[in-house]
Amino acid sequence: MKTNKNIYLPLLTAALMLTLGGCKLLKPVSQTAVVNTPDKFEGQPDSTGIGSVSWKVFFSDKHLTALIDTALQNNLDLKMAVQRIEMSRTNIMLSRGLMLPRVDAEISGGGRKFGDYTMDGVGNYDTNFSDNLDADRKLPSPFLPDYFAGFRSSWEIDIWGKLKNQRKAAYHRFLASEKARQAIVTGLVAQVANLYYALVYLDTELDIIRKNIALQETAVSTITIQKEGGRANELGVRQFTAQLLNTKSLEIEILQSIVETENALNVLLGRFPQPINRGTSLEQILPQETEAGIPSQMLRRRPDVQQAQQELAANYAEQQSAQLAFLPSLNITALLGFNAFKGNLLFSTGSLAYNALGGLTAPVFNRKPLKAASRRSEAASLESLYAYNKTVLTGFQEVSTSLKKIENTKKLSDLKKQEVEVLQQAVATSQDLFLGGYASYLEIVMAQKSVLEAELTLTNVQKQQYFALIELYRSLGGGWE
């Protein structure tokens, strides 16, 4: 009976309409930032800001710049970041490859035995009795080999842009990995500078403690002589001695802190523990200009903000790709080579074989994996949007905090300097009064203890000034160039 091929047309049309009817795309996630950034930082003029200054210019200490340069060459976190960039680069190559035809060389062999009571079995048996077949065309029986040598190709035509969006996502992730490396550089420069200034001021604290140890040793000797002369008692000697021992214990604590800080800095430099060459606190000069600049410029400079922005774009592209997976895909397959059921005839001209096939395929049933992937990509896109906004908020918070800290530590440093001067005068006065019999040894001990604490506090405040300035420099995106 002759079959009317036109009866298949309505069925194909109905199937295509059903497929397209179920391919409604989800509404893309809006990527409009919900954070409205201020026009400028409070109390700051419109300027380029210190973030645009190179770290080689920003830090004037030659010992520090040498350490930063070593860290940028040897730091292991930075080297790992470079390798992550290379991994992201390969993802771009992979996504590009998916858009091109895939061609595989193939050499294969196999065979099978058809049942005697099957269509193929009967047909092969009957074929061998044909007078039209020569010896080479006779089918081997009962086992029918199959040999192939040639090329097979498959190609998905990106008619909707699904693969293009995958490539775009890979590209944005590559840019994000580069920004992540820059963020590590910025943080590394700040870490090295912080540890360096911590060492400088630990040396200053050590000098203060040793100066006080010398003064207290003199005081112990003096009161011991006075005890022998009957002008003091054993209690006074023990009080001065206890104070001396307490100060010596502080010296040991500072020495241990120096060792720990040097070792931490050496880890950043990618080397084993060794002494760190450094200057003194008197040689350190704070930059006079500490402008934060314009917020929009800060956002363009901060690597973590740019990284979050690239991650946002990558997740958005992946979301679009996941939604386009619901649409029909056009696939083309092709074959070219030699195919035969006898090995000695495989490469003869009569064994040449080729074919080409193209078709649209679309998911109709069991689309749950595609829906799950789409929902996951939508959630990831929203998460990256919130992460971007959080990064912007964090950046502004860091800059604002650092600006206020610089301002307040300057005021605090001035007050602490005056306090130290007053207490030093109090120590001298108490010693004079003690010699004249108008003050007790306890008053001298308390005066010396107060001036030591004030001097150490002043040193810590000065150190915090440097830390605040370094944090401002980092938070403005400085140091990665």
From TrEMBL:
Keyword Zinc annotated: no
Chief location of this protein within or outside the cell: membrane
Stored InterPro entries: MdtP/NodT-like (IPR010131), OMP_efflux (IPR003423)
Alphabetized PROSITE patterns for the sequence: PROKAR_LIPOPROTEIN (PS51257)
GO molecular function: efflux transmembrane transporter activity
Superkingdom of origin organism: Bacteria
Protein localization: Cell membrane
Membrane topology: Lipid-anchor
GO cellular-component term (any): plasma membrane
Pfam family name, one: OEP
UniProt keyword list: Lipoprotein, Membrane, Palmitate, Transmembrane, Transmembrane beta strand
Keyword Manganese: no
NCBIfam families from the UniProt entry: outer_NodT
Similarity comment: family membership: Belongs to the outer membrane factor (OMF) (TC 1.B.17) family.
Name by which UniProt lists this protein: Outer membrane protein OprM
